[in-house]
Structure formats: C-alpha cells, structure tokens
C-alpha cells in the first residue's frame, strides 16, 4: 500500500488523538477568565474558579482511565499558573506558563529535528509500539522531520498571538485566544503535518506502520 492509499486509521489525528486532552486543557483557563471577569477583576476568584474546574477535569480524566501522572501534571500546571498570577498580582500572568511552554516547545522541536530525532517520530513511534525502528528507515526519518516543522510553526503562531496580548494585559482576549488556538489549531496542525508526512514518503512506501528496515 502506497503512502497515498494509507487508511484513515493511520492518520496522525486518529493515531495521536488530542481532542479530549486539548479541550480539557482549555477549560481551566476559560474558568479563570470568566471568574476574573464576573468578579470585577478578582485574581483570587479567577484562580479558585480555574482550580475547581481543573479538579473536576482531573477527576473526570481519572475515571476515564487516564494515567494518574498525566492527570496530576495537568492539575499541577493549573496550580502553578494560579500561583504565578497571585504572586505578580497580574491576571494576565495566569497565561504566562502557557507562553513559556510554547517558547520552550519551539526550541525543543527545532533541536529534535537538527539532531535527527524529530519529536513527531518519537510520539508516533511510541503510539505504534515501534520504539525507534522508524529511525532506521531514511525515508520515514526524513518525512517525520519535515512534518515536525509544521508543529514548530504552530507554537510560533501561538507566541505571535499570546505575547502581544499578554504584554497589553488583555485578559479577556487571552482567554478567547486560548480557546481558539488550542483544539482548532491542533486539528489544523495534525491535518497539515499528516499531509506533509504522506507527501514526503516515496511512492511504494508501505506507510508509517511499516518502517522499511534492512
């Protein structure tokens, strides 16, 4: 089966998922923005709102079988974001952790491509149970590297939107941007990177599930 004829179940969207996690990650920041707004710009109430929603999301994930470590990391992120906002006294700093995370992601994904260990290959390889077999397929290694560039642009785009809003102290617009630039942006990134990945594989290649290893 050629790369062009790969089944939909092999797509990055189907393989990596991400919709539930992306939506869940959006809820606490939205709760913060709403709580801050309706309380007359009270950072404390905004943080409490985010923590309550974050705890509900964490409990829901746990019941749905999400790994405890992933649940705790998500809740810890909400706590850290809240502490930063309380410490600085600036509501917009609740989103500072997200901005720093995107900046670090740009650097990490770029380095992964340079050293020929593209993160997209690592993630997809782990999901497929291949570990690092895909690296011994030159065509697949090249395809994962090119597709990983799309993810770098995703993080850069977020920074281009979030940084000016954070600098201007636009909490309401930061909340709205957090919604728009989470699942919709991830969905677009998955679709485009999947297209790049497929186009980068030579004709006759069996696809990402079957690395051609000597």
Automatic annotation (TrEMBL):
It comes from Phytomonospora endophytica. Keywords: Membrane, Transmembrane, Transmembrane helix. It comes from the Bacteria. InterPro entries: UCP010219 (IPR016566). This is DUF3159 domain-containing protein. The chain crosses the membrane at residues 36-58, 70-87, 107-128, 149-167, 173-197. The keyword Transmembrane applies. Signal peptide: none annotated.
């Amino acid at each position: 089966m050629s790369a062009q004829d790969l089944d939909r179940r092999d797509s990055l969207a189907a393989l990596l998922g991400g919709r539930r996690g992306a939506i869940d990650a959006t809820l606490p920041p939205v709760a913060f923005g709403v709580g801050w707004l309706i309380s007359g710009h009270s950072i404390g109430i905004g943080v409490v709102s985010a923590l309550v929603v974050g705890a509900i999301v964490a409990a829901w994930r746990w019941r749905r079988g999400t790994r405890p470590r992933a649940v705790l990391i998500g809740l810890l992120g909400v706590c850290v974001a809240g502490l930063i906002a309380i410490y600085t006294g600036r509501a917009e700093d609740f989103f500072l952790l997200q901005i720093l995370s995107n900046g670090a992601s740009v650097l990490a994904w770029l380095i992964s491509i340079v050293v020929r260990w593209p993160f997209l290959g690592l993630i997809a390889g782990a999901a497929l149970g291949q570990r690092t077999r895909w690296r011994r397929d030159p065509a697949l290694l090249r395809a994962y590297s090119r597709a990983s560039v799309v993810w770098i642009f995703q993080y850069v785009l977020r920074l281009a939107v979030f940084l000016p809003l954070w600098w201007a102290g636009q909490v309401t617009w930061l909340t709205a941007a957090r919604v728009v630039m989470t699942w919709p942006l991830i969905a677009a990134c998955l679709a485009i990177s999947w297209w790049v990945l497929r186009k980068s594989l030579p004709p006759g290649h069996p696809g990402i599930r079957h690395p051609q290893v000597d």
